[in-house]
Amino acid sequence: MIGNSNYYTGQAYPLKKIAQLGHSHGCKVGFDLAHGAGNLQLNIHDSGADFAVWCTYKYLNGGPGSLGGCFVHERHANNPELKRFTGWWGHNKEKRFNMRDDFDAISGAEGWQVSNPSILSMAPIRASLDLFDAAGMDNLRKKAVKLTAYTELLLRELGEDKIRIITPQNPDERGCQLSVLVKNANRTVHDKLTEAGVICDWRHPGVIRIAPAPIYNSFEDVFHFVERLKIILKD
Ligand SMILES: *Cc1c(COP(=O)(O)O)cnc(C)c1O
Question: 152 alpha carbon to ligand 1 midpoint, in Å?
Fold first, then answer.
């Protein structure tokens, strides 16, 4: 099991290649898509992965504590031999209340339901996914590539003596996120950015993770972030 993009460096990995390599060694392959869902076009079915899991409170805007998601590859869906975590919501609806102790799985994703999910927690996810559908993942990704490249361009102007971007430069090897190693800095850099209204985060020993999200961040947002960082680093 491996993250599809690394939480620290923002490096995105080739899922299909990893799945093939794992399978060639007899492994089951699963991906942690916490930093990929709503960020990259994952084509998770085509990757051949056996399973994947993700949270919905990062790029997908589900809000703190919102439901997670999981994917199980089709080839496992109707395999009665597979030991799986089951619950009565995945049982054949016709016979659900017959209260027998065998399990008759509904085919497809429904068969994997354990119980009934929190509707109040799913409502914001649905609203958010409607926006993703309206915008289109292709369009969002196109804007994200430009937005992150623009962020990178402005950051590089700060100079190698001040910062170093540890995320790969190749757009195919990253999503929205840039991880910026700030030299001779401490957490106050992050605190001052927060005070200025920039939502980013700080990772030991000196990395700012910044991820302009195409669905609501603008090029102007990015410009103001870098201007503010410039001032803070000068201090
Ligand atoms: C945020 C995150 C998760 C999600 O964890 P939850 O338990 O759903 O909050 C998983 N993996 C990584 C690498 C993350 O950054």
Answer: 25
